[in-house]
Amino acid sequence: MYKTQVTGVLLLTALLVLGACAPTTAPEETAPALEETPAPAPASEEELVEEEEVVPIPASAPEETVAPTAEPALITKDASEMVLTIADFEPGWVLPSAGSTTKEDARSAYHVYFYDGSMLPYPPVIKNTTAVYPSVELAEQVYLDTVPQNVSLENPKIGDASFLDISIPQNKLLVFRKSNAVVWLWLQLDTFGFNDLKPYARIIEAKIKN
Questions:
Q1: What is the CA radius of gyration of the chain?
Q2: Would the pLDDT of 70 be above 70?
Q3: What CATH number was assigned to the domain covering residues 79-209?
């Protein structure tokens, strides 16, 4: 019996030794499977438009509309309606002549001549010529051509443009333009300086306006 026990012990020991010497193979490690991330779907045109940065366009100021300059109304009256008459003078003045005259390029022209019968034998004389032209531009040029140079002038402020030539005290000339009409007024032989052309010019200006 003892022999049998010894044999069993020896056999067990041998088995243990063989088990310890046998190579141990480590189990292969299996890498965890990577989850595949699905590729993003391409953006639609609407999404692309939304993603683009929208730069606001500044509103431009509305263009200013410049109103056209109103052309002055042309005078259509005949020149004979815009001259001095005997009714515009004090008693004693005389109208020896009146009638149509000629002014280059004028549509109509009229001339009147007065003198103060109370101041004979050398009475003061007032002459008046009014001319109507087809356009304001032509009347302006006629007026400018009338302005004397290098003499004493005053501005009586009558009509659209005016001057008073006082270079010779006894013989004055007042010229003014109103739209397309030009008016000439002469005062001659005013030895005592009793007369002033400006009131007569304003009388004619009022006749042009009416």
A1: 59
A2: no
A3: 3.40.1000.70
